[in-house]
């Protein structure tokens, strides 16, 4: 479903052919880390190709086609074996041109070319945004630990192995300076650039 006219890159042409207009901004945001942790080009290529499979299924002659997109894509990507054969035959029976579909799969290099050439995107410098990304990662992990803990409490309470299920779960990751004893949440410490005692020591040495 690609053509010679239109966008300059393969990814751009596939986006246009399958009406995946939102994918461009999504790929850019995930690659640059705009929404948190950066996503690798290889993972973005897989994400994009799965969207292509889903779009091809939606466009197929049968509106009743029920496909597990991720497993179908994995089977088609591997290209050989019984799973690939089953996936291919099922799609073909429903009117999907599998050869055309797989020809529209893109590589991670193609994703990079699209992002840098069609969208003019670039990665932040090593320093730019690094602090925010690290803090976001820590806060996401804290949130995940809190959710897992709450789920465990609820499950054990329901099984009669815990007296109640309404405990408040507090996840507080802190850093303590071994020199001055300053104690602060890790996120706050990172934002401040440290506890300050190293700077104070340097100033004292200069007196």
Strands of the widest sheet, in order across it, are 1-2
Classification by helices and strands: mainly alpha
Helix content: 55-70%
Shape estimate: flat
Low-confidence stretches: none
Q: What is the helix/strand order?
A: HHHHHHHHEEHH
Largest sheet: 2 strands, antiparallel
Tell me the domain tally.
2
Mean pLDDT: 85
Query: In DSSP terms, counting alpha (H) and pi (I) runs of 4 or more, how many helices?
Result: 10
The beta-strand count equals 2
Distance from first to last alpha carbon = 72 Å
Radius of gyration: 25 Å
- SS strand fraction: under 5%
Describe this structure in words.
- There is one protein chain.
- This protein is mainly alpha-helical and 207 residues long.
- It is built from ten helices and two strands, in the order ααααααααββαα.
- A two-stranded antiparallel ribbon has the order 1-2.
- Strand 1 and strand 2 form a beta hairpin.
- The longest helix has 29 residues.
- The model has no long low-confidence stretch (mean pLDDT 85).
């Amino acid at each position: 479903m690609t053509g010679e006219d239109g966008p300059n890159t393969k990814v751009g042409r596939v986006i246009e052919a399958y009406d995946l207009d939102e994918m461009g901004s999504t790929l850019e945001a995930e690659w640059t880390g705009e929404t948190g942790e950066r996503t690798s080009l290889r993972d973005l290529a897989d994400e994009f190709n799965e969207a292509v499979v889903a779009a091809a299924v939606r466009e197929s002659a049968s509106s009743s086609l029920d496909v597990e997109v991720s497993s179908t894509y994995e089977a088609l990507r591997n290209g050989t074996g019984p799973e690939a054969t089953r996936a291919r035959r099922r799609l073909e029976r429903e009117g999907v041109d599998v050869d055309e579909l797989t020809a529209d799969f893109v590589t991670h290099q193609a994703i990079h070319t699209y992002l840098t050439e069609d969208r003019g995107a670039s990665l932040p410098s090593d320093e730019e945004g690094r602090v925010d990304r690290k803090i976001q990662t820590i806060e996401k992990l804290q949130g995940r630990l809190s959710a897992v803990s709450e789920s465990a409490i609820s499950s054990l309470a329901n099984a009669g192995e815990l007296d109640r299920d309404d405990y408040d779960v507090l996840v507080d990751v802190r850093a303590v300076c071994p020199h001055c004893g300053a104690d602060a949440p890790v996120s706050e410490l990172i934002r401040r650039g440290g506890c300050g005692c190293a700077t104070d020591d340097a100033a004292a040495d200069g007196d």
